[in-house]
Input
Amino acid sequence: MLIYYESKVKNLALTKQIFERFWNSEKIEIQHYKNIFDTKIWNYTTEPLIILAKQEHIAILPTPENYWFPWKSFFFKPWLNCFFNCKYCYLQWTFRNRFPVFFLNYEDMQKEIINQIERERNNWFDGQITFYASNYADLLATENISHFHENFLPFCESLPDNVLIETRTKSANITTLFDYAKNLNWKSPTQNMEIAFSLSPRIIVEKYELWTAILDEKLNAINQLLEKWFRVGLRFLPLLPVNNFQQIYSEFLDEIISKIDTNKISSIAIAPLIFNQWDYNVLVKKYQNDSDFYFINNLQQNVHHLRTCSGSEIMDFKEIFNKKFKWLNLFWDYI
Output
């Protein structure tokens, strides 16, 4: 493996930990990650490549209105790009290349999160504050590189009540979480971090979510975490209006309900396929001759000027989920 690393992170303990993990990799020192990351190269080299960097200006950005939980919520970016290859994902074309960038100055991120919490509390907001960490990468999938959860689980334990950090995953890479909990001598894991699993029917995973964990692996991981009292969420996104989606999703939810105790699930959030106009244009151009994306021409513009499923398709999805999870509180995005 080839590792580019900024001079600013070469003395960090985490950098040394990564170097030890990949002791036989080639390592090249650089001044700034954008010297590599902004290069317009879409394909990986003949060997895996990662970039280790410091995030100089840590942005804690407010989420769009109607995004998941109905309280204060923010994005932050510990990592850019994703190892998975979900064909519909905006990360397929957002950056100039697919090289993953790991920002390793976690202490700086944590300070900014604390500052944001203090600002909200000083403004007399006493509701839940949520920080989303996984909108540009699947953090759990590469925990052996990023060590994100190793660093953020104890941090979350120190946070005040009514604060939540969500990490979202399509992987089943949970073994290290149990090791961390054991090292922290937890009787029960912190409730300030939610491990949210993005779930889709098998046919969707096979066609559109390449390299991700299969459904059975994710359900098994969920059950293991629930047994150890981790806080677990379910994310059904994006909902794809494929042929016969009503039956596909209905049977899919029946399987979910039969294999996990949904009463132990902390939250369930749902969203259809959503694109801004620019991303939609890229998607159409990219897949206009792909038979698996026959439905993209039927995506309609909603009141938020976003391209998404038609009104009737959304009503069908809502009916399916409300019927299957009628005893649970569901959070819908842009519906």
